[in-house]
């Protein structure tokens, strides 16, 4: 409770103290135009490409006390006295009589009371628009009239974000500002680099006339920049800003918007706009959002979007923090990861070699597709278009150009080495999940070209989506090492274990196993019997190899080096056991019953901590070039014995496959960020979204979260919670309802919209078991099994009773193929 609380009714998290341990951010808009807004009003915005079309200069590495990207000042004249207030707390840091930041669904609402002035600012981007709006309402609480000027300030970045940081002569020589006069005394301050390939410019404007403006930082801060942001010379002097249209320099935009004399108790309102558009469009955008009714309507449309998006899955369980995450915060994070991949966050700055990842986005799409199926389909198309004709895939693409490369492994590729051995396999699961969700089987026949580098798109080889999936599996079938286990390449899911030569990856074997199961299920549904037989036999063959060479006695090993050495074995002093080798052997349906139990118990005994399951252990304690990146972290950090959250939900899912709902839920709860709200000084990051990693117990700062927001953790915890713990999952032939819950729960309810119909599902658990459906009725009619055939419309009531026979399920019996769902 220290810095804030969950307001579930309003679907917001409310920050009540601005001095949070790190900036806590939210996302506004989307990659086409948008970015992050922090809880002190700073914003990192870009349009289409965070590396090459950056708008604001937001440098996360600078101290929290500074404003970043953009801020707001009020200049208040009270009698003869002029004071400057910053309603976002930074950069003036004046004590707030009250402070509140409502972290909402694609908006941030910051309300403060400072020195008798109440300011409420709602920050959002209207859907489909390239303009950030700040709806500002200021109330005079001083008991006497005061004159108020509202001064929004933006610090611009050069559009090439890296150049901004690397060339301090060329960049300032190219930045230009210009005043554009508009109707009704309004203006827009344009900002653009002298040379720009398209004709878009940045603009800052307001719904009200502007008294004066500034575009040069030096002039604004004053005193040769020995003036500070906390006390800018231009504001302290109380006079007019210089109206400078800068022809070089460190470019800012500052507008002094006069609100006139405000009577005691009165509220005044203005809307500021920060956008990017073609010059000739700017007057229309400004005029549109100068109308408060348009602003309200745009805000309303955003609320409607989220209402629709979240309504596909809503639950009510005995656990309030579970509900807050599943109903609000986790699907929001899924949507953001599906949109941003790992492209732009407080930690991943979208500069240089990071684009939209094939592996990452294939997984993200699985978390975001129920709420936004057409966006998901569009992303799937893009991902499939960077799959190569041989079935493997490029590692990432840049959406503005659709150019693809292999990221960190680009050099390896150039040396002719295999790159990521796993990427292409993820798309199989992603497409199959999409088909199950939407029933859009026509997608399988859609022709999508394969990636062939310099060859123009219309001359590239094409193939149906189904062909793409088949080629993905075939590539792995062909590319195995000396144990018959798929090659690792530069890395598999774990980017940081980089082994020389033809090393083999047990993870890739299991991911391949999951893919084979998915295609088996799909082909069975489509009546392609020959293919069912082929994929079943490939699955059996790989399963036999994994069990033949991969079992260490108590758990599965993780890698074979080319030298024959094994990683992830009890023989290793460091990295003796890796979580993913255990969970994925179960997910793939490879682990026989007793091995599944033993492997997951080994995870519990050796890798579980109160803050989550570590990725491996014990941590490597010295750099070892033969093992690669993982050994560059100290023990307990990131992939080296850290709690890498992304892999936690896989263990939860595996546990539900064994019917162990208490353990699955314990694993869920221990990483639920909402449950860290009371120990937040240790956790540090936002309690309303999952971070990528938490420092492990070998690290002195055990429990500290890092790299929040853009992580595969979002998609997989959502899938673990909705599809496996609550057990409501679309299959090809119907909606499966097969929960695996804590035995303490007496039941729960879910509303699920899928394929045109809405299902109100009530599950009761009179015998306090973990799992086992003993009764299922749809609209009053009893049904055998756990799969409800799809309706195409209407509202339907489903009653489910859990009972004895499934208290602890025989491992591997009905559930070992659950990733591929019956
Ligand atoms: C990062 C990467 C992801 C990778 C993971 C583990 O989250 O984005 O692709 O799987 O690290 O190394």
Which helices and strands occur, and which strands form pairs?
Blueprint: E1 4-7, E2 12-15, E3 25-30, E4 33-38, E5 43-46, E6 70-78, E7 81-85, E8 98-103, E9 107-114, E10 117-124, E11 131-140, E12 146-155, H1 161-166, H2 170-174, E13 175-181, E14 187-193, E15 200-206, E16 210-216, H3 217-221, H4 233-236, E17 251-262, E18 267-278, H5 282-289, H6 292-310, E19 313-316, H7 320-340, E20 356-357, H8 358-368, H9 373-384, E21 396-398, E22 403-405, H10 410-414, H11 423-438, E23 447-449, E24 462-464, H12 465-478, E25 504-505, H13 506-526, H14 529-549, E26 559-560, E27 566-567, E28 577-578, H15 579-587, H16 593-606, E29 608-609, E30 612-613, E31 616-617, E32 643-644, H17 648-657, H18 661-670, H19 680-683, E33 691-694, E34 705-708, H20 713-725, E35 728-730, E36 735-737, E37 747-754, E38 757-764, E39 773-778, E40 781-782, E41 787-788, E42 795-802
Parallel strand pairs: 38-42
Antiparallel strand pairs: 1-2, 2-8, 3-4, 4-5, 6-7, 6-12, 8-9, 9-10, 10-11, 11-18, 12-17, 13-14, 14-15, 15-18, 16-17, 19-37, 20-21, 21-22, 23-24, 25-26, 26-27, 28-31, 29-30, 32-33, 33-34, 35-36, 36-41, 37-38, 39-40, 39-42
The structure holds alpha-D-glucopyranose.
Residues 342, 357, 359-360, 493-496, 639, 692, 711 line the site of alpha-D-glucopyranose.
Could you explain how this protein is built, in words?
Pfam families: GH94_b-supersand, Glyco_hydro_65C, Glyco_hydro_94. This is Cellobiose phosphorylase. Keywords: Glycosyltransferase, Transferase. Residues 11-292 form the Glycosyl hydrolase 94 supersandwich domain. Residues 305-727 form the Glycosyl hydrolase 94 catalytic domain. By secondary structure, the protein is α+β, with helices and mostly antiparallel strands. The protein folds into five domains: 4-308, Glycoside hydrolase, family 65, N-terminal domain (Beta-galactosidase, Chain A, domain 5, Distorted Sandwich); 314-340 and 629-722, no CATH class; 353-479, no CATH class; 482-506 and 523-606, no CATH class; 726-802, Maltose phosphorylase, domain 3. 28% of the residues lie in helices and 26% in strands. It has 20 helices and 42 strands. The strands form eleven sheets. A ten-stranded antiparallel beta sheet has the order 1-2-8-9-10-11-18-15-14-13. A hairpin with a 6-residue loop joins strand 10 (117-124) and strand 11 (131-140). Helix 8 packs across helix 20 (713-725) and helix 11 runs antiparallel to helix 12 (465-478). The longest helix has 21 residues, at 320-340. The radius of gyration is 28 Å and the shape is globular. The protein binds alpha-D-glucopyranose.
